[in-house]
Amino acid sequence: MSRINMGKKAISPLAATIILIAFSVAIGVSVMSIGINLGSRQKTNETTCMADECEAVQLQFYSSASQKYPPVSIKDNQLSALLENNGKKDISKVIVRVVTGSEIQNNMHDWKIRKGELYRASAEVMKNNGSSVQIELVPMIESLNRGLIPCSAKALKYTP
Amino acid sequence: MEKTLKRAIPEKMRNPAEKQTRKYGELQGSPAGEKSWKKEIAKETLDYAGFSLTSPQFMNVFLFISGASIFLIGIVNAARVFLNTISAGLAERMNPSRITILFAGLLLSATLLAMIFAISSSNPLILAGTLLASGMIIAIMGTFRQSEPASKNEPKIAHRALYNSAIGSAILLITGLALDRVSSGYSLVLSAAALVFLISTILKMLMPSKSEMKKTLGSVKEGLGFLRESSKNPFLLILLINMVIITSAQIASNSFYGVFIYNNFFITGIGGFANIAIIFSIAIIASLIGPKISLINFKEIGNFPLLVFGTAISSITPLSYVFSPNLASIGAATFLGMIGGAISGVSLGLYIGSRLQGELRQKYYSIMAYATVPSAMIASLIAYIGQSMGLVFIFLTSGIMLIAASMVFFIMVLLYKERELL
Questions:
Q1: Gap between the Cα atoms of B321 and B254, Å rounded
Q2: Residue whose C-alpha is closest to residue B193's, from B58, B378, B51
Q3: Residue B414: its chain A contacts at CB < 8 A?
């Protein structure tokens, strides 16, 4: 009968380590895939998934019946707008995006607009060479998860 | 029959362990001993209830809703780890009188009540101060705990761990629900914690004082001695640096798990605090399983491969908050991460126990206590950058650090396999 060496390890430390690393990668991928499956069902079932932080953002041009001036205007390449934060989050900055036929100009402005507040904003925009211009105001919020993030889906659009 | 046998064996030939137990006094099996372990278990139960009521994850959320920044939350948690280690180490040198114990208990209850004021007045600085103070007092009182000789009727340690974990999980869930459902639930929870710790202190006072205390924190000189030893042996130095990296990553990520869950799942699941309670109840249960996996497998696989595995597995928790932020995934990742942490902790302990002998081992424990300083500093730096980059950055950095530490252990396996170090 052959003798069993009880003191010796079953496999070499290197082989054991490689097997265990492969095992931990497999476990990690499995755990993350739980999230991917749930993420695809996020829109229909939001009981366990994280909500999009930009959902709570709402930036609008201020308008009221007694208002004498338009909420937004461009005069001498100067954009003036009266903005209102109707969302549930404070807006930290705003990106003013001017899109012409061939060019896109992005400028970030420190327009801090608290919840429910009005803000008179002004910014210089590029010279209009006659082609159509679209102006987008993209609100940016301080996200606890991701720092300062732009909410492009909540951009305020204006075509003069 | 047993009596007859005992009489037949001369005193000198009896089991030395039995003699040791008898040396502690007449508590063994006596009515006094019975009462003592019952008090010990009652105190332990109250302590676990208190720890659940004042869970660090809830405390971090209190800091967050009081208006503390990410950096402040990070620095408070980092300072807490360092101060708890050092104050517990210093308390080991004390021989506290009953009055000292009572004073510490009263002070703890007072700081918990001060937290109610800090939260209600939304003052993050007072809250941070009371959190640090309460943590230090709990750490100091932990060293005053009894370690009585086992009575024959006393439940086994494994059973006690299971029982305490069950109590801890149940109280954590109740606390989470109370914080969500009861208006000003924090007042109720912190008042209950103050009362629980006060009763625990009174029970502690009624117990006989401990005969001998084992010192775990050595002098700075001892710690430096380990560093000198490490300069001759790069293996020890890499081990030490890797442990600093792991501790930093764990401090940084642990500080924000609760805050992340509370902030992102406030209206989903069963409520902000209750979601935290569920996730961390899972962690308590997982912490029972991890050490068993290490103890069963270390002979067949070896400590170092298990250390690589445990560290790699523990990186899943922070990474799940980045790549799969939903409650199911976070729950599963927390379970695995806790098992991984326990596996690596036990494996490292077994490794140190078997490879480092006598004075060197004592020096290692000393340097590890002092190594909480660089760990706390690195964790604070991560929190500082996370202030502008967001929590996802903190979790991603922690996850990458844990994977890197695991890879360093793997490289150590590759380099040192020939030298009988594994």
A1: 12
A2: B51
A3: 14
CA distance B98 to A153: 65
- Interface contact B388-A13, CB threshold 8 A: no
Q: Return the structure tokens found at B247.
A: 């501790």
Could you say which residues from 383 to 402 on chain B have a Cβ atom under 8 Å away from some Cβ of chain A? 388-393
Give Cβ neighbours of residue B300 (< 8 Å, ≥ 6 apart): A9, A10, A11
How far apart CA B81 and CA B340 sit, in angstroms, is 20
All structural domains of chain A, each given as residue ranges with its CATH number in brackets, are 9-50 (no CATH), 53-158 (2.60.40.10)
Which residues, other chains included, contact B60 with Cβ-Cβ below 8 Å and sequence gap of 6+? B73, B77, B255, B256, B258, B259
Phi, psi of A116 (to 5 degrees): 80, 0
Say if domain B26-211 classifies as CATH 3.90.870.10: no
**Tokens 């503390």 label which residue?**
B68
pLDDT of residue B322: 92
Q: Which residues of A touch B (CB under 8 A)?
A: 9-14, 16-17, 20-21, 23-25, 27-28, 31-32, 34-36, 38-39, 46-51, 143-148
pLDDT (tens digit, 9 = 90+) per residue, A40-92?
Answer: 554 444 445 555 778 888 988 887 766 666 677 877 778 888 889 988 888 99
pLDDT at B150 over 80: no
CA-based nearest distance B277→chain A, Å: 15
Q: Which residues of B touch A38 (CB under 8 A)?
A: 326, 328-329
Nearest by CB: A50 against B264, B336, B413? B264
Chain B, window 309-328: residues with a beta carbon less than 8 angstroms from a chain A beta carbon: 309, 312-313, 315-316, 319-320, 323-328
Radius of gyration of chain B (CA): 23
- Residue-range domain boundaries for chain B: 26-211, 218-422
Q: What is the reported pLDDT for A76?
A: 78
